[in-house]
Amino acid sequence: MAHRKADVDIDDEDQFYDEAEAAAPVAELEAALAAKTADVRALLSRGNVAAALQTALNEPVYGGRDVDSIKERTLQLVMEALAATRPADIAGVVAELRPGQLDVLLKYVYGGMARPDLFNSALLLSWHEKAYEVGGLGAIVRVLTDRRAV
Amino acid sequence: MATPDVFEFIVGVPITCHAFNADRSQVAISPNNNEVHIYSRTATGWALAHVLNDHDKLVTCIDWAPNTNRIVTCSQDRNAYVWTWEAGVQQWKPTLVLLRINRAATFVRWSPLENKFAVASGARLISICYFESENNWWVSKHIKKPIRSTVLSVDWHPENILLVAGSSDMKARVFSAWIKGIDAKASNPVWGEKLPFGTVCGEFSAGGWVHGVAFSPSGNTIAFTAHDSTITIANGPSVPPQVIVAPNLPFVTLFFASEHAIVAAGHDCAPYLIANRGSHWELADKIDGGRKKSVTGNSAFSKFRQMDSRAQAITDVELNTTHQNTITSVRPYAGSGTSVSKFSSSGVDGKLAVWDLLSAGIAGLRL
């Protein structure tokens, strides 16, 4: 079966390769995530959910396998902020997001929905509902189209 | 809100592409197959006048040169034909164009002077075609670099030299299509001083496939729309472009109605107006007010009759727009290049609509 695993496209010079994201070195990203985590937790403990979520959504980490663990922990951080929001406040928090942040929020919502064993899908659905009310179908299309997955 | 004139040639068959002749008395459409149908306007509607069936596979694009009255068509069979009208025999005569591509042709447009045309293709290149009188045929030169995927649309600069191309490698690029022996020496204050063939005069990134591109009437501005529901407007290669993020499904086609207005349409089934408000562009209006449904007869009676005959309540599947499916092409219909007053749209629902931009309630918008 070895032939099935051979990458025959290597010899095809017409092959389309996606440009690698110019991500910062992993150590820098780790430091940034640690700082971000501290900021978000501080804001959450003061009850400022909107600012905490915006901080968590800032500068999302994109890239390949080497940053998988950072992406995973960023997802958990965003989920912490989402879970800390009272259901009645969701609409207000979403309305405060900038359009770019709204698209990133939807990426994390879908990322969370892909792991129903870890995250509360009912909560994510209510976030999705409010995000859709503000961003429309365009925001969903942007998440589907964007090659930079979180 | 405007109510457009709507024509349906073959009910239920998508219109792949359409092009009107100069005086709008005839229209060429492709009914989603290898044929091109030419309809003539009659007192009551449209009558099928000619069927051009030299292509072997789906016809992907048609363009009708207004001054020289020539039609160019391109197809998934990797060929393009230039059709000239033979008045003696009352027929369109095809001339094969040597495109030299190994993938489907996707899009074709005559240059403003109608001495060249550009064919976009899945072979990751653009064929710039021109007539070689010594050999009496149409030949092509290729723009290859740095295109990395299928080219989906092109549009010409009004000065006949530059070309903007949108591609599925998520980039829109401005190229020089200057041909020795056809064009005089050219330069452009916005896009570059030296413009030999194939020069990349600008490259702009999008968040998805670039579906549609357009030059403004002055040629100083380009606009393109991508599959991430955005429209990007750029004033030259060095100015940062402005991105309009739309809340609806992606647009696939657009054109400049004037220097300050863009009409775009796509998967949302309705055309939209994008207007320049002095310093910035914004999504101004939907040019389709939606129709009032005519409820005929006693609604309670028809409801129970429906439940009786089909064992279900009336299901409403009709969209509140003129087009009932994706609009794949919008093109200027009337008015000058710098101030389009009417435009035509065609789409997957098989309808061809002609819209009046002035009565669409946009006259009040300062454009």
UniProtKB/TrEMBL annotation, chain A:
Record keyword Lipid metabolism present = no
Main subcellular location of this protein, as a coarse class: cytoplasm
Swiss-Prot/TrEMBL keywords: Cytoplasm, Cytoskeleton
Q: List the subcellular locations.
A: Cytoplasm, Cytoskeleton
Q: Which Pfam families match?
A: P16-Arc
Keyword Cell cycle: yes or no?
no
The superkingdom listed in its UniProt entry is: Eukaryota
Give a short account of what the protein does: Functions as component of the Arp2/3 complex which is involved in regulation of actin polymerization and together with an activating nucleation-promoting factor (NPF) mediates the formation of branched actin networks. Arp2/3 complex plays a critical role in the control of cell morphogenesis via the modulation of cell polarity development.
Q: Enumerate the PANTHER family for this protein.
A: ARP2/3 COMPLEX 16 KD SUBUNIT P16-ARC
Q: Which family does it belong to?
A: Belongs to the ARPC5 family.
Question: What is the name attached to this protein's record?
Answer: Actin-related protein 2/3 complex subunit 5
Organism from which the protein derives: Polyrhizophydium stewartii
GN (gene name): ARC15
Automatic annotation (TrEMBL), chain B:
Note whether Hydrolase occurs among the keywords: no
* UniProt cross-references to PROSITE patterns, sorted A to Z: WD_REPEATS_2, WD_REPEATS_REGION
Q: Which residue intervals correspond to the WD repeats?
A: 52-83
Q: Where in the cell is it found?
A: Cytoplasm, Cytoskeleton, Actin patch
Is Cytoplasm one of the keywords UniProt gives this record? yes
Reading the lineage from the top rank, the first entry is: Eukaryota
Which ranges of the sequence are coiled-coil? Answer: none
SUPFAM superfamilies of this UniProt entry?
Answer: WD40 repeat-like
User: What Pfam families does the annotation carry?
Assistant: WD40 (PF00400)
Record key words, sorted = Actin-binding, Cytoplasm, Cytoskeleton, Repeat, WD repeat
The record ties this protein, via InterPro entries, to: ARPC1, WD40/YVTN_repeat-like_dom_sf, WD40_repeat_dom_sf, WD40_rpt
What is the annotated role of this protein in its UniProt record?
Functions as component of the Arp2/3 complex which is involved in regulation of actin polymerization and together with an activating nucleation-promoting factor (NPF) mediates the formation of branched actin networks.
The similarity comment for this entry is: Belongs to the WD repeat ARPC1 family.
Instruction: Write the protein's name.
Output: Actin-related protein 2/3 complex subunit
Q: What is the lineage of its organism?
A: Eukaryota, Fungi, Fungi incertae sedis, Chytridiomycota, Chytridiomycota incertae sedis
